[in-house]
C-alpha cells in the first residue's frame, strides 16, 4: 500500500544518477500546467485516434509520461487540493463545494515561496481562486480571470487570456536583474462544460458533443503551445521542470452518465501526467501513480532541501531515472458530503469501485447505493464494463481493506490540521456552480 511518509529531501539529487554531473549551482524553475476535465484517452499521445493535441504530444515526446496516473477524486476542488498538498481528500477536507482549503495546510507554493521562489498562479476556475484557499503561497495570483461575472462565467473562453497573463509574468521575470527561481501554475479551463465551438479547431472533429469536447482540447492545446513557445523565448528552458496534468476526466455515457463528480470509473479518474525535467530522459512509465505523488516528486526534482511535511504521496524521481519502484495503489474518493459518495482503489491490474451513481439510475441524487461494489480487471477490460466482484470475493475483501487502511491514515493525518470553515455563497455564485454541474 501507499505508505504515509514524511519527505525529507536531500539537496542536489540527480535525476539520471550517473551520466551527468550535478548541477548544484542552478535552482530549477517549475512550470505546472493543468487542464480541467481532460481524459487521458482523448490525447493523441495517450492513444486517441484523432489529432486533438499536437503540442502536448510534442511535450510528451520530451517527457517522462505516466501512462497509469489517477486523480484522487473526480471533481476540481478535491483533486486540486490533493495536487497542491500531496494529501488525499479525507485529509485535506475539501469535500464539497462549500469547503475551503484551510490555512493550516501547507501547499507546494508555500514551501517554494519560503525557499525563495517567486510564485505565481494564473487560473480562471472559481475553485482555484482565493475564496477556496487554493492560492495559498502564490505571491502573484490575480483574480481578474477568476470569472468575476459568476453567472455568465461558464460561457467565457479563457485559454487565450490565461496564456497571455502567464506570458506577461514570464516576461517580467526574465527582465528582473536577479536570477530568482520561480514556480508558475497555469490552469486551463475550456474543456469543461459548456463545450464551445472554436473556429479552426472544432470542425475537424465533427458536430456532436464529443466533437465539441475534442475541439476544446485542440483549442486548449494550441494555447498551451503558445505558452511553451513563450517559455522558449523568455524562460531558461534548460533549468525549468515542466509538468502537465489534468484534475479529472469526463463521462460520455461510458457508464450511463455525463460530466464528472458522481463516479470514479476510469473515464474520470485516469488523467494525463507528464514531467519534462532537465536530465530526465523521455520514457513511458506504466507504474500506477497518483496526483498525490506530484508534490514530493516536485520537491525532489527541484532539490528543495529539508522540506518536511506529511504527505500521502511518494516521490516518483526513481521512475524518472528509469529505476523500479515498489508497486503502489491509488485511492480516489467522493465524500459522503456529495450526492454520490464513492471510493475507488487501483492496485496493479485490479480496480475496486464502491458506491457512486449507479448506471441507468438517471443520475438522481439519492439513487446511489453506497455499498454497491464493482471489481474490474483493467487488463482484460480496460473500459471497466464487466464487474467481477462475485467471482473474486477474497480479492474484493483485500481491496476493501486497502481502502479502509488508506482512509484511516488520511483521517488520522487530518487531525493535524484545523477544521475547515464552511463557505457561504451568494445566489450568483450558486448559479455559477449549478451551471458547472456542481450544485443540484
Ligand atoms: Zn475540474
Detailed description of the structure:
This protein is of the alpha/beta class and 440 residues long. The protein folds into 2 domains: 28-320, Alkaline Phosphatase, subunit A (3-Layer(aba) Sandwich), CATH 3.40.720; 330-435, Arylsulfatase, C-terminal domain, CATH 3.30.1120. The protein is built from 11 helices and 16 strands. Strands 2, 3, 4, 5, 6, 9, 10 and 11 form an 8-stranded mixed beta sheet that branches. Strands 13-14-15-16 form a 4-stranded antiparallel beta sheet, covered by helices on one side. Helix 5 (159-175) links the parallel strand 4 and strand 5. The model is unreliable at 1-24 and 362-368 (pLDDT under 50). Zinc ion binds next to loops. Residues 36-37, 76, 247-248 line the site of zinc ion.
Fraction of residues in β-strands: 15-25%
Which ligands occur here? Answer: zinc ion
Elements, N to C (H/E): EEHEHHHEHEHEEEHEEEHEHEEEEHH
The name of the CATH architecture of the largest domain is: 3-Layer(aba) Sandwich
| Molecular shape | globular
Structural class: alpha/beta
Give the strand tally: 16
CATH topology of the largest domain: Alkaline Phosphatase, subunit A
Helix content: 25-40%
Amino acid at each position: 500500500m501507499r505508505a504515509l511518509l514524511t519527505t525529507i529531501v536531500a539537496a542536489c539529487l540527480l535525476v539520471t544518477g550517473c551520466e551527468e554531473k550535478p548541477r548544484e549551482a542552478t535552482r530549477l524553475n517549475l512550470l505546472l500546467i493543468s487542464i480541467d476535465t481532460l481524459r487521458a484517452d482523448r490525447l493523441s499521445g495517450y492513444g486517441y485516434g484523432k489529432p486533438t493535441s499536437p503540442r502536448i504530444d510534442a511535450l510528451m515526446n520530451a517527457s517522462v509520461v505516466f501512462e497509469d496516473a489517477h486523480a484522487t477524486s473526480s471533481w476540481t476542488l478535491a483533486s486540486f487540493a490533493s495536487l497542491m498538498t500531496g494529501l488525499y481528500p479525507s485529509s485535506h477536507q475539501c469535500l464539497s463545494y462549500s469547503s475551503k482549503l484551510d490555512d493550516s495546510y501547507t501547499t507546494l507554493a508555500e514551501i517554494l515561496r519560503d525557499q525563495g521562489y517567486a510564485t505565481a498562479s494564473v487560473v480562471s476556475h472559481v475553485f482555484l481562486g482565493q475564496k477556496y484557499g487554493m492560492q495559498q503561497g502564490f505571491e502573484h495570483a490575480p483574480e481578474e480571470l477568476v470569472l468575476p461575472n459568476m453567472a455568465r462565467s461558464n460561457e467565457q473562453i479563457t485559454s487565450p487570456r490565461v496564456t497571455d497573463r502567464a506570458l506577461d509574468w514570464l516576461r517580467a521575470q526574465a527582465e528582473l536583474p536577479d536570477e530568482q527561481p520561480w514556480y508558475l501554475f497555469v490552469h486551463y479551463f475550456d474543456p469543461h462544460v459548456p463545450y464551445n465551438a472554436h473556429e479552426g479547431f472544432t470542425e475537424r472533429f465533427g458536430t456532436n458533443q464529443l466533437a465539441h469536447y475534442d475541439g476544446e482540447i485542440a483549442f486548449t492545446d494550441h494555447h498551451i503551445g503558445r505558452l511553451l513557445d513563450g517559455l522558449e523565448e523568455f524562460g531558461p528552458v534548460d533549468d525549468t521542470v515542466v509538468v502537465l496534468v489534468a484534475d479529472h476526466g469526463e463521462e460520455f455515457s461510458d457508464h450511463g452518465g455525463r460530466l464528472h463528480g458522481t463516479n470514479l470509473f476510469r473515464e474520470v479518474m485516469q488523467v494525463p501526467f507528464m514531467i519534462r525535467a532537465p536530465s530526465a530522459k523521455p520514457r513511458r512509465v506504466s507504474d500506477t501513480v497518483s496526483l498525490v505523488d506530484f508534490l514530493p516528486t516536485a520537491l525532489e526534482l527541484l532539490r528543495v532541501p529539508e522540506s518536511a511535511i506529511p504527505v500521502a504521496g511518494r516521490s516518483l524521481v526513481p521512475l524518472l531515472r528509469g529505476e523500479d519502484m515498489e508497486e503502489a495503489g491509488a485511492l480516489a474518493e467522493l465524500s459522503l458530503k456529495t450526492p454520490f459518495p464513492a471510493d475507488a482503489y487501483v492496485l496493479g491490474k485490479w480496480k475496486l469501485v464502491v458506491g457512486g451513481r449507479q448506471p441507468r439510475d438517471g443520475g438522481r441524487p439519492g439513487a446511489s447505493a453506497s455499498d454497491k461494489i464493482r471489481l474490474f480487471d483493467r487488463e482484460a477490460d480496460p473500459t471497466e464494463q464487466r464487474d467481477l466482484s462475485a467471482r473474486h470475493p477474497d480479492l474484493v475483501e483485500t481491496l476493501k481493506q486497502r481502502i479502509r487502511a488508506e482512509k484511516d491514515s488520511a483521517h488520522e493525518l487530518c487531525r493535524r490540521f484545523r477544521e475547515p470553515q464552511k463557505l457561504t455563497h451568494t445566489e450568483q455564485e450558486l448559479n455559477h456552480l449549478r451551471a458547472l454541474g456542481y450544485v443540484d
